[in-house]
Design goal:
about 290 residues, alpha+beta
Length: about 290
């Protein structure tokens, strides 16, 4: 019999709670749901009013992994959806606005990925993101070195950057911006990536070409395009272990000497929130958003 739970007055059917999703650690679907429920206070503000793409892995990271961008079949009528522009025509996507919607979506077993714009202003980006992706043998340690350079470069333009782990190998830099389209933000992000490569040619590459990337950090500026999405802060990732895209302090970035220092799993997150609060909360403050130069 499928368990039924009630969340904020909404009845939600939960399935396969004992199913092991991460064999390396024995982490179950029930634990995944518990993680999302307990972190909802910091996660939901980063999801709210943003169309969500689901990267689903219902049989765990070793099973089938696939993106769901349109509203999934069987979505409850009380889950908020919105029509959003796409190059091939308008589409309807889910907005995870509340705890009930979060638990319903988590029951699908998913990573949450969001755009760099809000549903009410799809033509205006409110965030810039730089995805620092290390090519072996480079690791997140080298990403931290690049992140610190980019932080100073952004600060010179009056833009305050914040960092989070990718939850896989690299690091994401984010900042709140205003008054620019996704296309303009992409252009600016590319300028930053090119400048980083010029400043650190042995460490940085701004092009995606695989042959250029071994031992370097690829500064992926392209995720600022309006059609692109990035892993939402605090989302679990479909990796061998239940790792999280976790906000980090700049002190942690400065002091990183080994890849394992910036690898956070589901059980690490609430203690960090209790110690630091939401390190990315400034991204949600429109008054702190900066105009591009």
């Amino acid at each position: 019999m499928t368990p039924i739970t009630e969340v904020d007055g909404r009845r939600i059917a939960l399935s396969n709670l004992e199913k092991v999703l991460y064999p390396a650690t024995g982490f179950t679907k029930g634990e995944l749901l518990h993680y999302y429920a307990t972190t909802s206070g910091v996660l939901l503000p980063h999801l709210r009013d943003r169309p969500v793409s689901f990267l689903r892995y219902p049989d765990g990271p070793d099973g089938q992994v696939f993106f769901t961008k349109n509203v999934p079949p069987g979505t409850p009528e009380w889950v908020t959806t919105a029509e959003v522009p796409r190059s091939e025509g308008a589409a309807r996507m889910v907005l995870v606005q509340d705890l009930a919607s979060l638990i319903w979506a988590a029951n699908l077993v998913t990573e949450f990925h969001t755009h760099q714009w809000l549903v009410r202003t799809p033509d205006e980006a409110d965030r810039i993101v730089l995805d620092l992706d290390p090519g072996a043998p480079a690791t997140v340690v080298q990403c931290c070195e690049v992140a610190l350079w980019l932080r100073e470069r952004l600060a010179a333009d009056g833009i305050e950057a914040y960092a989070k782990t990718a939850g896989s190998k690299g690091l994401h830099l984010l900042a709140a911006v205003r008054g620019a389209s996704g296309e303009r933000v992409s252009e600016y992000a590319k300028e930053l990536a090119v400048a980083a490569e010029r400043a650190m040619p042995r460490l940085v590459v701004h092009r995606m070409t695989r042959s250029l990337r071994p031992g370097k950090v690829f500064v992926d500026w392209s995720q600022n395009a309006a059609r692109k999405t990035t892993a939402t802060p605090y989302t679990l990732r479909a990796r061998p272990e239940p790792t999280v895209s976790a906000p980090v302090t700049w002190q942690e970035v400065e002091e990183c000497r080994a890849a394992g220092q910036l690898m956070f799993r589901a059980g690490d997150i609430m203690p960090r929130v209790q110690d630091h609060g939401d390190l990315l909360a400034p991204l949600l403050d429109a008054e702190r958003a900066a105009a591009l130069p």
